[in-house]
Amino acid sequence: MHERSLPASPNWYCSRCSDVNSSGLLGVGARNIIYLIDVSASSCRVVGELVGHKDVVSGFSFCQHAGQSHLCVSSCNDGSVRFWDSDSKVLIKEHAAHQTPVTAVHWSPVDKNLVVSGDEKGIVVCHWHHTGDTASFFPEPRTIFCLTCSPHTWSTVAVGYKDGMIVLIDVSKKGEVMHRLRGHDDEIHSLAWSPLAGEDTLYSRPEDSEATSGVSAGDERGCYLASGSKDQTVRIWSSVRGKGVMTLKLPYVKKRGSAVDPGVKERLWLHVHWPKGRPTQLVSSCFSGELVMWDLTRTGKQKWTLFGASSEGQNHNRIIFNVTSVHLQDRELLISTSMDREIKCWDLASLDCCWTLPTLGGFVYALTFSPVGAGCLALGVGDNMIRVWNTLTTQNQYDTRTFWQGIKSKVTALAWHPKKEGSLSFGTDDGKVGVYDVFSNKPPQISSSYHRKTVYTLAWGPPVPPMSFGAAGGKPSYSLYSCAGEGVILQHDPSKLSGEASDIDKLIRDTNDIKHKLSPHTDLSWKPDGKVVAIGNEDGCIDVYQAPSLKLLCSIQQHHKIINTLRWHHDHSALPELHCLLASGSSNATVYVHDLRSIIENPPESPAVLTEPYRRLCGHTAKITGMAWSPHHDTRLVTVSYDGTAQVWDVLQTAAVSNYRGHVGYVLCVDWSPVDPDVIWTGGKDFTLQEWRVSKQEFTNPPKGKKMVDLKEKMKANPKQKRKNKKVSGVGGAPPLEVNGETGRGGQKAVMEQELSGEDEEDEVSSTNSPVPPATFEMQRKSSTALKSKDKPDLNLLKKKKPRSMLPISTSMDHRPKEDLLQDCINLASVKHSKAPPAGCVPGRGEHIHLGLFSDREALYRMLEAEEEGHVEAGHYDSVVYLRLWSGDLEGALQLATERGELNDHLLSIAPMAGFEVWSRTVEAFVKQLCLQELYLKAASHLLSINKLYEAVDLLRSHKLYREAIALVKARLPADEPVLKELYTCWAAVLEKDGHFSAAAKCYLAADASFDAAKVIARKNDVPSLRTAASLARISGEVALAQSLALRCAKDLAAALDWVGAQDVLSTQESLLVHRLHLCVTELLAAMLADSQVVSQSCVSSHPWASPGGRHICIQDKVRDVWEQQFEVSQKSAGHRSAGALLQELKSVESPPPTANVPFRQVQLYSSLHLTRAVLSWLLDDDGQLIKELWKAVAWLRDAGHLCVSAELCRLLFPDGDVSVCSRKHSKTLHHTDEEAKAAASSLQAFILYQHLYEHWWSISTQIRNGVPLSAADSSPADKGKDKMLNGGTSESEESVCPATRRSDKLDFDASLLLSERHAACQAFQRSVREIQERLAAMVLQHSRAQGGQLDSGEKEADAPTQMSTTRQSSDSQGSADAGQRPEDQETLLSLSAKMSEHQKQLADLPDTIKMYPHPDVVECCLVLLHLSKASLSVSESLQDEAKGLLHKYATNPSVLKASQRFLT
Predict the structure, then answer these.
(1) What is the dihedral of CA 358, 364, 366, 368, to 10 degrees?
(2) Which residues pair with 246 in a beta bridge?
(3) Which of 222, 276, 345, 819 is the 20 to 30 A CA-CA neighbour of 860?
């Protein structure tokens, strides 16, 4: 096997991808391979690999039980779990229980047969190693990030999830959840159980220890669990109580020379590890690659100690992913893996680093030993870094330095300077060439000349012109040559890399007088003495040039495929004839060795062509990628190949010496050890560098074809996989398939995408599952065409249909048999060089149509005519157009395109060449064509090009593109253009129809139609729209409209009790002052009513002056004061603020008659309107109008059914109960002269007394309920009836609606006003008329049904007896006979009609003032007074007699008669 090796980098972002067993064998998952490394306290060595996974290894765990420590388990992104024997390195068994990528796996430390794994979907699977059984659980539907089995209880498993949840499950109970540990709020990266059972080691708080000891006494002792999360905390949990007991916040460790910036979000992976035997110490990773040891019992802020603090450079410099520990030779070692691609070993006792093993994160593209520094090996790797390894050091076997500055791509080529120690040139995948001084810390020098493609080869050699001119004057003795994928070789001046590099092709052409195109170059090699250079080409030819003029000495034409590598034999051989041996390898599998001694020593006058090799080395089964001559032997050569092996040859004997097969996949580079003749170093696609001995290989020859067959079978078994958005890096493990050995070198991009252990960042290679087969950079040495076609992956899926030929007939003639094509050459030569062409040969016609392309213009025209005819027959008119265009018939081409409707922008752009008229016609035709395609904007733009502006506007308007049409008109035409206003109006109509009122208003405004703009905004009819419309109308001078809109808006705001908003809207219009006064009164009334708790309504906003004053202040005084202070309206105000003008304006406001169905807020507005008129009348000293308006204000509320509110308004108007006293503050007493005013005052006074009367009654009723006067209880039925008459059916005495009560032994007011006989008579007449009307209506309905013969089927039969009983009862009340008999009905109908006429005549004789200003029901007042007199309240005898007289005279209703009997008998 190999001696020393640098393995692939361990995979990133895995919770457990490395583990070490008790014997010191470390296993790490890297890509799809597990590398086995033997570790000790002093060194380490890669001892083998476990190969077989087809996708990225996501987890790895050893069995830690004695006798089974060689067994291990690994998980994979393809959902498989594999069991291995690490001693024999063979697969034992495989389980495919998961359907999605497995994210975590662990071998139970308690049960030697139990393995637990978890996947992305949240499924946990238990695998039983000895039986092969599996059991699946689904504890949580979340993505699992990590899991770990308890070291004390076999059935307990801790599972950490992506969202920060931790769950403890019992696998013996079908995955039952024991605890859910909540505390972290981001990904759980790692979980670790305490090595000590029980929970009594960490407690310092007595209450916690008591709680724990109570539990510990039971069967279940529990155990601490540590968790590390992306939220930058480590938490310690109690598994018994299911809660956290400690939280550790990660420290920000300041690195030497750099400060931590808290504003920059640090990348973090927080791994925790609890070492065995250390229950109070916990190891965790930290920011930027530090390891810290936490002492869980230490008090204070700093509970941690930093690893590697004794000297600089011990720590990792990137985040750490995995930590595992082992006890070896009385020392406890800790192994860590990191993003910096290093594996480190730490001594837990001293916390110092024991050793570091570098790993590789990409293909090893180049390796070369320094010719000056013995044993100094340089590696060019696909992870964008160069490694320089001092392979001869004795203290540190892996003394490696890494260089990454200035490198942003894969390092594909390296070359040490032949003389200058430490000078290393490099080339990269992105075409960059630079030079590093490996003994300094300076960044590299970068050449200012970049290649367009991947750099294949670098070589130091003597300068050639133009750089060699003046070499004696201090010019460097060596130039740096670079060969890259575009086929160019550049010569760089190492002393002046900022200068421009020269292309040696120019020198080759000039020196050798070459006119033809040179084949692209793919490799070069200078002979060690610098006299000649060999250059390999894409076509397989090798050219040997003599320095410094680069005269061509010979051309070797053995290979027929791309040259991948060239090597000259070393010149320190004892046999001078061997100095001129040149070995070459190409994309076929044979290696050729050429002896060029005779040509070099005796240069021929003209270049020689060699077609036979000196030696032919056959054995490889795939392309050759690299080679090296042994510096210790003569003619000993090693070659590496895509067949995955390295082969040592004895060239002179043409014999295979040894074959090395230690790599997995392609081998890409090789070099011979400069100090040990038996040691060779190779690097390959498997991300490894391997050192091996020739003498220890069991094979001599390469495998006979089997390798390639295996590769093909693996490729078929592992088809291309979709990219997976995972942080775990990796790639499918099947080696890629070579297509005929000629996969293009452009495929290197695909190769690089496969490189693992990397994320998208500035200094790492992106690593995801590659969608294309991998290929190395040697495969890129293809033609330019191939390079273009290979730049992107999966181009087969993106292939476009091949475009149709413009000259199909002549093209088809070139696909005839070879003999005909050769004859064409003879015919063409005869036509061009002979005066008498062959008979029947007319180029451009008939069988010789295709020759028109190679003859004169007439022949070409003939050919084009024939091609046109063919296109017309095939229906390809677009091709005909272009042919006419090419032949100069521009007008004909345009005419044809117009007829076919196939005009396009290109044809239109060249139409002006045919003249203005043709161009104008073409534009108009193109516009019609565009309109058919609904490209109206483009069509209008083309009309503008021929100055048809109005037509363009009409086109846009006809298709309702008003916005664009207006923009066009405003940009091109004067502002007073009539079409502009028309466009605005049309657009506004469309917008208004669609409900876009604001946009329509803008159009109307632009068209100077402000009235319409305001009206359309107001159509929305909400408060913001009305306010905006009013402001718009006011600004535009539409005064009347502004007033009406402002009034509408204010009313809506007032209805919503937004008093401030309503006043603000009206304040913008000076002419709306009277409406502001109205709203002011409404607000004051609402506030006072709310203060008295008669009504409950919460206002949106109110003014400070609306706060209610004392209850003794009448509302009209309050209104007058507010008017004077806020609105400057008083008796003295004049002009538009005078009371007369305001009253006149207010009289025009509509005030409908009261009805019972109006909402209360509207009733309030109407009532306050009359109140406003009353105050204005007061200011004018019009007492009559004042009292009438006050009566109307009260009547509106009363007639609308709001009796309590009406009574409260009376109290607010007349706090003293006297209607003659209008204001005490202003000493206003009313004096009425006309009868109508007196009647109104009398009516108001009567209703106030009516309220006082009932207050006495309610007071008596309250005492009756409390059991005071027993005699009054008998009258409760009559009381109820009276209450119903008063309150529309609601018994106030029962519900105590009006709370005002007072108690006195006698009436404190004169109730005689309530016993007005004139009003009693009027009310009796009105009552009789209503009763007669009701009976007449009932009779008409009954007779109409009787005439129908039967009841309607849809009615209930019970309706008839009801009606009849009603009629009967009504007739009885009038003293008539049984109303159920038909003859009596006729008489009753006549008598009722007569009575109706009589009552109506009596009503007409009464004064109008009695009917206009009614009193409360007189009969009802009589009953109440008589009731009060019975309830021991002093009522005068005269008043009682008057009441009894009125009852005798006017009590006709049966219920009233019944109630009055106890007073009249």
Answers:
(1) 40
(2) 236
(3) 819
Instruction: Round to whole Å and give the CA distance between 1108 and 1087.
Output: 6
The identity of residue 1436, as a single letter, is S
Handedness of CA 652, 653, 654, 655 (dihedral sign): negative
Under the banding of pLDDT at 50, 70 and 90, the label for residue 609 is: very high
Which of 1128, 1110, 1090, 1365 shows the shortest CA–CA distance to 1215? 1110
**For helices 1160-1179 and 1073-1091, angle between their N-to-C axes, nearest 10 degrees:** 120
Q: How far apart are CA 447 and CA 466, in angstroms?
A: 17
Contacts of 1319 (CB under 8 A, 6+ apart): 1410, 1414, 1415, 1418
Q: pLDDT for 732-746, tens place per residue?
A: 333 333 333 333 343
What is the distance between the alpha carbons of residues 942 and 949, in angstroms, rounded to a whole number?
Answer: 10
Q: Is the torsion defined by CA of 1411, 1415, 1416, 1420 positive or negative?
A: negative
Q: Please give the average per-residue pLDDT across 271-289, as a whole number.
A: 93
Q: Which residue has the tokens 């503008």?
A: 944
> With 90 as the cut, is the pLDDT of residue 229 above it?
yes
> Residues 902, 908, 913, 919: is their CA dihedral positive or negative?
positive
**pLDDT at residue 261 in the model:** 52
Distance CA 28, CA 18 (A): 4
Between CA 587 and CA 159 the distance in angstroms is: 52
Whether pTM > 0.70 for this model: the answer is no
How many residues comprise the chain? Answer: 1465
How is 1290-1339 classified by DSSP, letter by letter?
--HHHHT-S------SB-SS-GGGG--HHHHHHHHHHHHHHHHHHHHHHH
Written as one letter, the residue type at 892 is G
| Tokens at 1324, concatenated | 């009796």
Half-sphere exposure of 1024 (CA within 13 A, CB side): 2
Q: What is the pLDDT of residue 347?
A: 94
The predicted model gives 272-281 an average pLDDT of 93
Has residue 792 got a pLDDT over 50?
no
Q: For 1123-1177, write each residue's pLDDT tens digit.
A: 888 888 887 788 877 877 888 877 777 777 777 777 888 888 888 888 888 888 8
**Are the CB atoms for 675 and 632 separated by under 8 Å?**
no
| Burial status of residue 859 (CB atoms within 10 A of its CB: 0-12, 13-18, 19 or more) | buried
Among 169-178, 303-312, 587-596, 878-887, which stretch is predicted with the lowest mean pLDDT? 878-887
Mean pLDDT of the chain: 82
Alpha helices by DSSP H, 199-327:
206-216
H-assigned helices in 888-1022 = 890-900, 905-910, 916-932, 936-945, 949-958, 962-972, 978-993, 997-1006, 1010-1018
DSSP H or E stretch at residue 287: none
Distance CA 500, CA 423 (A): 20
Q: Which residue has the tokens 């659980």?
A: 137
Q: Tokens 């409260």 — which residue?
A: 1208
pLDDT greater than 60 at residue 722? no
Backbone angles phi, psi at 12, to 5 degrees: -95, 165
Residues 6+ apart with CB under 8 A from 346: 291, 307, 308, 333, 334, 335, 336, 352, 353, 354
Which position has the higher pLDDT, 1384 or 896?
896
Lookup result for tokens 């595992």: 324
Q: How far apart are CA 299 and CA 284, in angstroms?
A: 18
- CB within 8 Å of 758: residues ≥ 6 apart: 12, 361, 383, 729, 764, 765, 766, 767
Characterize 404-413 residue by residue with b for buried, 16 or more Cβ atoms within 10 angstroms of its Cβ, and e for exposed.
eeebebbbbb
Closest CA to 739 of 800, 797, 786: 786
Residue 1381 has pLDDT above 80, yes or no: no
Question: What's residue 1138's pLDDT?
Answer: 82
